[in-house]
Each structure stands twice: as structure tokens, then as C-alpha cells.
Known about the structure:
The complex is a heterodimer of chains A (255) and B (157).
Chain A: H1 7-39, H2 53-80, H3 83-114, H4 123-142, H5 148-162, H6 165-175, H7 195-239, H8 248-251
Helix pairs in contact in A: 1-7, 2-3, 2-5, 2-7, 3-4, 3-7, 4-5, 4-6
Chain B: H1 2-36, H2 38-41, H3 47-53, E1 61-67, E2 73-75, E3 80-86, E4 91-97, E5 109-116, E6 122-130, H4 138-147, H5 150-155
Parallel strand pairs in B: 4-6
Antiparallel strand pairs in B: 1-3, 1-5, 2-3, 3-4, 5-6
Amino acid sequence: MHRFANPKRFLDLSRRIVPWLAGATIVLLAAGLVWGLGVAPPDYQQGDSARIMYVHVPAAWIGMFGYTFMAVASAVFLVWKHPLADLAARAAAPAGAGFTFVCLVTGSLWGKPMWGAWWVWDARLTSMLILLFLYLGYMALINAFDDVNRGSKAGAVLALVGIVNIPVIKFSVEWWNTLHQSASVSRMAAPAMPLGMLAPLLLMAVGFTTFFGVIVLLRMRSDIAAAKIRTLQLGQARTAPGDTRGTENTGEAAP
Amino acid sequence: MAKTLSRSKLLKRRRLSFLALGLIALAGATALVLTAFDDNLVFFYGPSKMQRKAPAPDQRLRLGGLVKQDSIEKVKGGARVRFVVTDRKTDVPVVYSGILPDLFREGQGVVAEGHLRKDGTFIADEVLAKHDENYMPPAVAETLKEDGHWQEQKNKK
């Protein structure tokens, strides 16, 4: 594990992985969307409206996966103090929040024609909304401190506390009466849909996962680059005393 | 050198056990809270539960179940609908005036919001359709119905 915690090795590895992940994302999402929206059969009750699941369901999965990823990275950061784990958690937050938002919006668009309501306060919908607020709270918290390290620690604790929401989302439809139906795919019994619907759904899910991976890796790389620039600027400011006082970089900090 | 290494290892182990203990305590607390609020976390009551609860006539609540076969009846030229919500044990008659969702049909899940009158009739001011987790192409559904496997398929879960 320490092998991958080396930033230099991470930069080398991620530079080689990102183009492949990005290519896979484009191919998977294109194939999944064409298959799901065009080729797959309509539902016997909901007709073509059910096709919104090809975006809604994978977005919900990645919203929850992203949070779990963030919580695991936060735990690694708190216990082993790996700076890359902190970067990974910070990078995952906006991506996960985006997927959660897409899930909520598409769910609302689906709910109006099928259920008859844009939104209801049942356990599944409410716990998913809490997930979005956890992401937003995490992002606000890590940026609320002048000391970056303190922000990371506070955020990591919040991410770990919020992990209790993930099983609540998953099992909300089984523990309580909800308007939202129970799971069709991730359950003990065989999936409650034919292969012609399941295959494009899984394609989309894999595509969203690689998309999530691309976003996280790119954000981590750019964070590392930004940290390098800061270090370089600080070094420059130190090696050239006196005459750099008036430049943009140090101008504000000067007394 | 060796001593500082083992010390940092010790610290890591301590942080890990604190983290594990914290998560276990958190999970326990959440489970207790959710169990305590169980009755408030449900979105609707089934017909049997609704009758057992015997709510006050002005108490707003939601009734959920299946629309009973052959129970939909339009009155006043279709402006008002009567139907029966059932859980196959208890039936509750419902009266509703308003627009019904597309998925509203006999044998289909439904959630009605309103209040229970003294005579046992539920007066709804909002009706939502609830669909189940089964998706299938229309042709497959037709074949299942023709072959008479429809109910077993539905009851299998």
C-alpha cells in the first residue's frame, strides 16, 4: 500500500491510466445510452418512461459508492496519515455530489409522471437528500479552515460519521414503508428485469464508475500540481529577498 | 530509530482502534434512534395497521396498499372516484376527487393521503401510484398473463 502512496509513483501511474479510463467512459456511456434509450424494450406498465432508470439508477449507485470511497479514504488519512488519501477524499466529494444531484433530479422527473408527485418525504428520498447535504457539508467544512490540515481532519471525521447514512439509504425500502419501490438488481434473488434491460443498465453503471475514476484522478493530479506551484512560489520568494516584495505573489502578505 | 518506529506503529494502532470503536458506537446509536422512530419513518400505513390505530377523524395520514380488483367506481360523472384499498386481509373504502396518476389501476399499488372518517371510509385529497420493482417488456407480460403464470410471478418475491 505504501508503494501507491508515493506521490511521484501516483503521478506516473495516473497519467497512464486516465486516457484509458476516459476512453472507456466515452465508449461505455455511448453504448449504454443508445442501447438503453433506443434498443431496450419499454416497460409493460411504465412504457418509455422507465428508460430514465438507465441514468437514474447508476447515478444513485455512484453517489453512494463515491461517499463510501470518500469515507474509506478519510479513514486511511486519519489512521495512516497518507496525504494522498486526503487528496482522494477531497477529490471524490464534488464528483459524488454531482452524481447524487443527477439521481435526485432524474428521480423527480420520473416521479411526477409515474407516482404523481415530484417529491415525497419517504425514507428513501429523504436519506438520499441527506447524502447530498453530507457531501455539501464536507466540502464546506474542509475549506472552512485557514490550516489545510485541520480542514482535512475535520472533514474526514464528518465523512466517517456520515457513513451510517449509506446502509440507511440501501435498506430504507426494506425497513420502512416507502413510496419508492424496492431494489430490482442489487438483491439476493435474481434481478427483477430481463437481460435486455439489465445489460444496458450495467453498461451505464460501469461507465459512470470509470467516469467517477477519471474525475477523481484528474482532480488529485491538479491538486498535486497546485501544491507544487505553491512550493515553487514560496521558494522563489525566499531566494530573492528585497526586490520581490512588490510582486503579486508576496505583495499581499507583505506588512 | 527502531524505538521511534514502533512508537509510530503504536500510535497508528491506537488511532485505528479509536476509529473502530467510534464507528461501532455510531452504528449502535443510529440503530437505536431509527428503531425508536420506526413508527414515524414509515411513509404510509397498510389497511390492517390503519384499522388497529383507529386515528382521530382530523388526523392526516397516508394509507397504502393495492387497489382491489373491480372496486373502482366513478361517481358524479367521473369527478369523484371510489375504490377499495386492500392488503388481502383488510379492506378500506376510499373516496377521492381529483386527478389520478397514469399508473392508477386495479391490482396496482397506491398511496392515498387524507383522513379516516368515523364510518371507516378514507377521504383522500391526494393519490399517488406506487409501482413495484419488476420491469418487463409488454410482450413478456402478455405471454405471462395468457399462460396464467401472472400471479405466481407476482407473488414469487
